[in-house]
Design a protein that fits this description.
The complex is a heterodimer. By secondary structure, chain A is mainly alpha-helical. Chain A has three helices and no strands. The two termini of chain A are 13 Å apart. The relative contact order of chain A is 0.22. The mean pLDDT of chain A is 86. Helices cover 29% and strands 26% of the residues of chain B. Chain B has 14 helices and 25 strands. In chain B, the strands form seven sheets. Chain B has a five-stranded mixed β-sheet with strand order 11-12-13-14-15. In chain B, strands 16, 17, 18, 19 and 20 form a five-stranded antiparallel β-sheet that branches. A four-stranded mixed β-sheet of chain B has the order 2-1-10-9. Classes of the chains: A mainly alpha, B alpha/beta. At the A-B interface, α2 of A face α8, α9 and α14 of B.
Chain lengths: 84, 492
């Protein structure tokens, strides 16, 4: 999994959730639930859409694994397997 | 006849061979639906349900939900729809408060239903799944007829989110519902050729008002139990949907959803947005992608549908932020703080007079007298009406949080958090995220070290997901005014 993908995931996080956090300092394994990521269906949808826009891949909410939203690592790992 | 059951039977007679409901691969006609609903009404009678009894319906959008609503109505009982995302204690509150004697549900929700009913003497009936004791389409007993109900009889209990920690019961009569369907249908011009997609919960006032209006017009009602972006886009295209009641966040994510190819949504004529303000970028982005403008609708649990923006395509871009003009037979006025009626363009509190409005809140005479007065319902929404009669909403008096169209009472979440043994006190408020959507935030003073996961886990088990604080902050104390009031503005 490339650092470039993690960096782009953090960019999306910064745009959607972590308004007061310097996303560059966010650890790849830090629990994102602390920042409200993935808690409610609205924020999950917003985040998925933002990731789709960033990476140009389809991320179906019915297919992503349960631990998808846990960390930058888990998100990046799934996306890296989707990006052509 | 001005009753919900009369409305349904009239549509079933007039449009007997036309499609009434579609769910997944299953499609039923109005005639078939009427036979099933009458059969279900007979079944309810066999279970002891009589005119005026309350029957709670705890089901997602489905053919069974539709059958249950009309079956209960035909039996003469009162429907109490319960949001299918609710947890045990929430369902229990509705059962207790409504005085329900029977709860209708499905296998997937049966555990929650049984736990919520336990000790209350309430019968639980599954009508969906392998364990169903009444299964669609059921039998149609010979001679099954609708109970004799009148326009003034109660038809449904809906609950309005309060700001006091508990939802308020709003009883709507058969006349209220019949008037709502008449006025909304005539305003939007639905006919038997329309096909209306319901992803918003029909158990909620917004979905319910549009649902009975669609049935009145003989439209095909397409139901989906959950919102899945690609699933909804596929349904809109495949089922040639003509009308789509939605909430802004749905429109926002649909307009940006990645698809493998273009979607043909050329059948779509009316996209309704309600529950929260429609943002300009969503309005234009949705049109850019699907060539149809979303139109804002305004309604409330207390009144049903109030207004809708049906201005022409040449005007809508200028007026997209208006919730439109009142639907037929509904009147809206603006009153200033001094109680004087405002002139066009002047801001104040919006008040509604409607034949579909309730008489008040059950068991709350003071609250009823405060907001139901002089023939109007005072909405608590702040706004103005322009010279052309278009209504604009620009704020609200009530301390509610609007999560994707669902209203959250901060008091209810604060009460729950206060039951956690490690939480000394908590304040709950709405904050706006980077995309302009409101989210629930909890600021917590803990008795001993705890983390965000503890808070989420505790809430997830006890309240519907949309009420769970997505943001949690720990503080040593809450900021208070000299009189002890929590200064919520300082917590954002």
């Amino acid at each position: 999994m490339s650092d470039a993908i993690k960096s782009r995931v953090k960019k999306v996080l910064a745009g959607n959730f972590l308004k007061d956090i310097d996303f560059r300092e966010l650890g790849d394994g830090a629990p994102l639930i602390d920042y409200g990521v993935g808690v409610d269906s609205v924020s999950r949808l917003e985040f998925l859409v933002a990731l789709e826009e960033e990476f140009g891949v389809r991320l179906d909410e019915g297919e992503i694994p349960p631990d998808f939203f846990e960390t930058v690592d888990s998100i990046s790992d799934y996306i890296s397997r989707r990006v052509p | 006849m001005n009753t919900l059951s009369g409305l349904f039977l009239e549509a079933a007679g007039k449009f007997s061979s036309r499609t009434a409901v579609i769910e997944g691969g299953l499609s039923v006609t109005y005639g078939e639906l009427a036979r099933s609903a009458l059969g279900f009404a007979s079944y309810l009678y066999s279970r002891g349900v009589r005119k005026g009894d309350r029957v709670a319906i705890f089901l997602p959008n489905s053919i069974e939900f539709v059958t249950a609503v009309f079956g209960v109505s035909l039996s003469g009982a009162v429907s109490v729809p319960v949001n299918s995302s609710f947890k045990t204690d929430e369902v229990g509150f509705y059962l207790q408060h409504s005085g329900a004697m029977l709860l209708v549900t499905g296998d997937e929700l049966i555990n929650t239903a049984e736990e919520a009913s336990s000790g209350r003497g309430i019968k639980v009936v599954s009508m969906r799944g392998e364990k169903a004791s009444w299964k669609f389409p059921g039998n149609h007993p010979e001679g099954a007829v609708a109970a004799d109900v009148g326009p003034g009889d109660e038809a449904i209990y809906l609950y309005s989110t309060g700001s006091t920690g508990k939802p308020k019961r709003v009883a709507r009569t058969h006349y209220n519902l019949s008037a709502l369907a008449d006025n909304h249908t005539e305003t939007v011009g639905w006919t038997e050729d329309d096909r209306v997609l319901f992803v918003v919960p029909i158990s909620h006032t917004y979905g319910f008002g549009n649902f009975i209006s669609a049935v009145k017009s003989g439209a095909a009602v397409v139901v989906s139990g959950e919102f899945n972006r690609n699933g909804v886009l596929d349904l809109l295209e495949k089922e040639r949907i003509t009308a789509f009641p939605s909430v802004p966040v749905m429109l926002d994510v649909l307009s940006k959803t990645y698809t493998d190819g273009p979607k043909d949504l050329s059948s779509l004529k009316l996209v309704i947005s309600a529950g929260a303000p429609l943002q300009e970028r969503t309005f234009f982005k949705f049109h850019e992608r699907f060539s149809v403008y979303p139109r804002q609708l305004y309604g409330s649990t207390e009144t049903g549908v109030i207004s809708i923006n049906l201005s022409g395509d040449d005007e809508i871009a200028e007026r997209f932020n208006s919730v439109g003009r009142p639907v037929k037979n509904v009147s809206v006025k603006v009153f200033g703080e001094d109680g004087r009626e405002s002139d066009a363009g002047e801001s104040g509190e919006l008040a509604v007079r409607s034949p579909s409005m309730a008489a008040g809140y059950y068991g709350l005479p003071e609250e009823t007298a405060r907001v139901f007065r002089d023939g109007f319902y005072f909405t608590g929404d702040l706004g103005m009406i322009d010279e052309a009669g278009y209504i604009y909403i620009n704020g609200r008096k009530k301390l509610l949080i609007n999560v994707g169209g669902f209203k959250v009472d901060p008091g209810e979440v604060e009460n729950l958090l206060s039951q956690h043994p490690d939480i000394a006190e908590a304040a709950v408020l709405g904050v706006t995220d980077g995309l302009g959507n409101e989210r629930v935030k909890a600021v917590i003073v803990a008795r001993r070290p705890m983390d965000v996961k503890d808070v989420h886990g505790f809430c997830m088990e006890r309240i519907a997901e949309y009420k769970v604080p997505s943001l949690v902050e720990f503080r040593r104390e809450l900021p208070r005014s000299p009189t002890g009031k929590i200064l919520r503005e300082q917590l954002k």
